[in-house]
């Protein structure tokens, strides 16, 4: 064999060696670990975007483990090994639909999926997605209903303004009417409101607005039964002047009541026989008037009052005019006016 032919063979062997090395480098490109084995394959596809929720599809094959992380696009992209260590697991060998919740609205995110094979080769893929604008929303809920009041709560989301309006059942209320003629309330926090209309059936409607958008909550229907007024007869009214206090004892009678005694005081140092007595179950300094009242039924049971007023006015000719509006703890109401002579003790 000639020397020139041997040199050609040596040159060919060297070229083949370099070519093999290059093929190996190409096969290992993008891997961490660099071991032998079949390289993991990752496929990512964006899915549905609903406000601050992102969904994506991921398929991982030829791997023994995989995981993902979702980070703000403004943050540094985590290393594949970190994703495998701290991320959430991804099922290998099938396509999975993954949803990431409670993200910021209108924000860009990077989804990183990393996978590792038996030879500790690690590969990763990334996907960029952006959340949507927060929707305008309003929730109208009933909190409490009594014979004379209706309490409701308004909870707005992403609103610039919120309005509500009560209307009688059988009538209607348009969004434009509610905005123009309704009550304006906070658009940034939940608020509670109380309606005290007359006896009847009603609806309350509420609208939230943002720019040129309007969202109407489901109208709530409610009924006011009205208080049961107890018919009473004034038997007599006693009064006593204590110098700095005036005391009235108003005695009433009804078929279900043995005696009602309303003890009404002025305790602000006034000696006037006239005024308005605001109900309270104890003397509270600083108040203009104090009224301690109770009902004693035929059974002997005492029923306290929860609120109301007793007004005493000069009716002329030495007589007094007494106007009573008191609500018992059983929600029955005494509502009457009496004119007559007071018996001073």
What does this structure look like?
- By secondary structure, the protein is mostly beta strands.
- It has three domains: 41-130, Immunoglobulins (Immunoglobulin-like), CATH 2.60.40.10; 137-224, Immunoglobulins (Immunoglobulin-like), CATH 2.60.40.10; 229-344.
- The chain is built from three helices and 25 strands.
- The strands form five sheets. Strands 16, 17, 18, 19, 20, 21, 22, 23, 24 and 25 form a ten-stranded mixed sheet that branches. Strands 10, 11, 13, 14 and 15 form a five-stranded antiparallel sheet that branches. A four-stranded antiparallel sheet has the order 4-3-6-7.
List strands and helices in order, with pairings:
Layout: H1 3-28, E1 41-50, E2 53-61, E3 65-72, H2 80-86, E4 88-89, E5 95-100, E6 108-116, E7 122-130, E8 137-145, E9 150-157, E10 161-168, H3 175-181, E11 183-185, E12 191-195, E13 200-210, E14 213-216, E15 220-224, E16 228-229, E17 233-241, E18 246-254, E19 257-266, E20 275-278, E21 289-297, E22 302-316, E23 319-328, E24 332-340, E25 343-344
List keywords for this structure.
Immunoglobulin-like; mainly beta; 345 residues; 3 helices; single chain; 10-stranded mixed sheet; 5-stranded antiparallel sheet
């Amino acid at each position: 064999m000639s020397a020139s032919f041997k040199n050609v063979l040596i040159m060919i062997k060297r070229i083949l060696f370099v070519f093999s090395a290059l093929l190996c480098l190409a096969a290992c490109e993008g891997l961490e670990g660099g071991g032998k084995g079949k390289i993991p394959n990752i496929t990512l596809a964006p899915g549905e975007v609903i406000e601050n929720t992102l969904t994506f599809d991921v398929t991982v094959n030829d791997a023994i483990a995989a995981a993902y992380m979702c980070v703000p696009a403004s943050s540094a992209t985590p290393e594949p090994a970190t994703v495998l260590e701290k991320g959430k697991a991804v099922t290998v060998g099938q396509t999975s639909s993954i949803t990431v919740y409670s993200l910021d609205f209108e924000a860009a995110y990077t989804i990183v999926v990393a996978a590792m094979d038996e030879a500790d080769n690690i590969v990763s893929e990334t996907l960029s997605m952006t959340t949507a604008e927060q929707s305008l929303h309003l929730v109208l809920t009933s909190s409490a209903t009594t014979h004379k009041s209706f309490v409701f709560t308004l909870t707005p989301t992403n609103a610039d303004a919120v309005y509500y309006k009560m209307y009688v059942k059988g009538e209607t209320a348009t969004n434009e009417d509610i905005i123009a003629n309704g009550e304006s309330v906070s658009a940034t926090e939940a608020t509670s409101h109380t309606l005290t209309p007359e006896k009847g059936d009603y609806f309350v409607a509420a609208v939230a607005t943002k720019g040129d958008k309007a969202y109407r909550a489901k109208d709530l229907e409610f009924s006011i039964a009205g208080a049961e007024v107890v018919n009473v007869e004034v038997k007599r009214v006693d009064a006593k002047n204590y110098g700095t206090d005036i005391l009235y004892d108003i005695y009433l009678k009804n078929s279900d009541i043995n005696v009602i005694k309303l003890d009404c005081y002025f305790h602000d140092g006034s000696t006037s026989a006239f005024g308005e007595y605001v109900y309270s179950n104890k003397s509270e300094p600083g108040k203009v008037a104090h009224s301690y009242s109770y009902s004693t039924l035929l059974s002997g049971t005492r029923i306290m009052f929860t609120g109301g007023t007793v007004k005493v006015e000069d009716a002329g000719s030495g007589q007094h005019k007494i106007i009573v509006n008191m609500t018992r703890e059983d929600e029955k109401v005494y509502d009457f006016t009496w004119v007559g002579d007071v018996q001073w003790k």
